[in-house]
Structures are given as C-alpha cells and as structure tokens.
Write a structure and sequence with these properties.
179 residues, mainly beta, Jelly Rolls, five-stranded antiparallel beta sheet, four-stranded antiparallel beta sheet, binds N-(carboxycarbonyl)-S-(naphthalen-2-ylmethyl)-L-cysteine, binds fe (iii) ion
C-alpha cells in the first residue's frame, strides 16, 4: 500500500493547505479518486483537480479493497484523502461535513507512526476519549459516529519502522457526491 501511495504522491504532490483564515495547516495532504479536498484563502471544498490543475490519480486497488471489505455498502468511494503527518503535525478537533450523504461511512486507514486520536460526540460540548491509532488500524466511522468531532493531538516519533523517514500516513475514504 505504501508503494502505491508513493505513486499517488508522485502524480499529485503533497501540499500543506492554508485555511480560509490564512493559517498553514501542519498536515500535508493530497488525494486520489474523482474528487479531492482542498483548502486555500478562497475556502475549503472538494474539487476534481489537484491545485496544479492535474486530475487526481485513481484510488489504488489495495486501498479500495479495504473499503469494499468493511464499508458495508456497494457504493465505491469518490475520494481517498491522503494525510501525511511529520512528527510535529497535528489536526485540531473538527467534524467532516462537506460530503453529500452522511449515511455513508468514512473509512480511515493508519500507516506508520502511532497517533493520539481524540473522538468526541456529535456536539462539541460532549466529552472526548483519546486512544492511540497504530499502523494497520482501520476505523469505520458510521452511524452516530459519522458526525462526531475528532482530531489528532500528536504523533509518537519512532513508533513504527514502516516509513523509512518516519511520520504517519492516514487515508480517509469517503463518498462525497449524492448517490
Ligand atoms: C470521525 N483525519 O481527514 S482519521 C480527516 O488521522 C481526519 O488524519 C484524521 O480527521 C487523521 O478528516 C483522523 C479518523 C477519522 C476520520 C474521519 C472521521 C475519524 C472520523 C469522520 C467522522 C468521525
Ligand atoms: Fe476528519
């Protein structure tokens, strides 16, 4: 899977997105599939091209195979978001609600160093639980958890030998468009 992702990143290089408010995110991102998520001063959105203007590469077969095994729907995903965390990167608490139909799950695949994941409820006021995600972990965020607040507090350096230069890759597979 890492080899297939190297080909994705060669075709659609990782970018460090800027939020609409002008802050640089610490996570570097790219995508595969028909649509990818981008953020810049104009706002954040799904679009059918990498910021370079190139179409996104296809979702690798070995990644699609995970979705087909666990997602519980015959519909394939439109988007595989690829997040790369160096050991200083984090992702603040947020909800994923730019997709068209929340009855489809989001499937997450973690690769490389462990990360401290925080999961709350559907309202920001609810408490959160933290747990470590390890390389090879697959999460299916469906049902009530689909709209849960979540984020990554930190990466544990040196906790995996999968990536020669360390850090963490997270893949999130999503159905973006309405069925
Ligand atoms: C819970 N990614 O890409 S993966 C994201 O590790 C994102 O890169 C984190 O949050 C990461 O949006 C967390 C686990 C995850 C993904 C999507 C979710 C948890 C989720 C959607 C809804 C609820
Ligand atoms: Fe998210």
């Amino acid at each position: 899977m890492v080899a297939a992702l190297r080909a994705v990143v060669a075709a659609a290089p990782l970018v460090q997105p800027v939020t609409p408010g002008g802050r640089q995110m610490s996570v570097r991102m790219t995508a595969a599939g028909r649509l990818g998520w981008v953020s810049d001063r104009q706002g954040y959105r799904y679009q059918d091209r990498h910021p370079s203007g190139a179409p996104w590469p296809a979702i690798p077969d070995e990644v699609l195979a995970v979705w087909r095994r666990v997602a519980g729907t015959p519909r394939d995903p439109d988007c595989c978001l690829v997040n790369y965390y160096d050991t200083a990167a984090r992702m603040g608490l947020h909800q994923d609600r730019d997709e068209g139909d929340f009855s489809f799950p989001v499937v997450s695949i973690s690769l490389g160093d462990q990360a401290l994941f925080r999961l709350g409820g559907q309202s920001r006021a609810e408490g959160t639980q933290s747990f470590w995600l390890s390389s090879g972990d697959v999460l299916v965020l469906g049902g009530a958890s689909r709209l849960a607040w979540h984020g990554i507090d930190r990466v544990r350096p040196g906790s995996s030998t999968l990536l020669p230069r360390g850090g963490r890759i997270n893949l999130t597979l999503r159905v973006v468009d309405l069925p």
